[in-house]
C-alpha cells in the first residue's frame, strides 16, 4: 500500500498561515518506506499532479516496489479523481484503491500530517518566513519514526473494515 496525501486545510492552518497554499506539501508513505515529501510551488491541478506522479512518486515508489506490487491510495480531492489522472493511473497499470467520498478521515496520511504538526508545535519555533517553515516541515518528515508510519499503513485493512461496517459513514479514524 502506498498512501499519497496533500496537506489539508486544517493541518495547514495549524502549521501557520505562512504556507498560503492548501496543497503544499505533498507526500507519500508506505509500510516499508517513509516515501518522499515535496513542496508544490504552484496551484495543484491535474497536470501538476500527473507531473508529480511521473517525476517524483513513480520513480521513488518503484525503488521501494520494483515489481509494482502495491495499491495506491489517495483521497477524493477533485485533482486526484479527475478523468485525466484516472487515465494516467490506468495507462501506468497502477492499482488505485477505491475511496469513500465522505470518509477522508480514514486516510492514514492524515494521522501522519497531524503527528508532523504536533512535532513542529513542540519545537515552539516561530518561523520568520515560508522557507524556514518548509525547511522545518522537511526536517520533521525525515524525523518521522518508521514504526509509526508502518503501523499507520498496516492499519488500512482495519480502517476499511470499519468503513464497511459503518456503511460508509464516518469512523473513529
TrEMBL record:
InterPro entries: RNaseH-like_sf, RNaseH_sf, Tc1-like_DDE_dom, Transposase_5
GO molecular function annotation: nucleic acid binding
Domain Tc1-like transposase DDE: from-to ranges: 37-127
Superkingdom of this protein's organism: Eukaryota
Pfam families linked: DDE_3 (PF13358)
PANTHER family: TRANSPOSABLE ELEMENT TC1 TRANSPOSASE, TRANSPOSABLE ELEMENT-RELATED
Name listed for the protein in its UniProt record: Tc1-like transposase DDE domain-containing protein
Classification of source organism: Eukaryota, Metazoa, Ecdysozoa, Arthropoda, Hexapoda
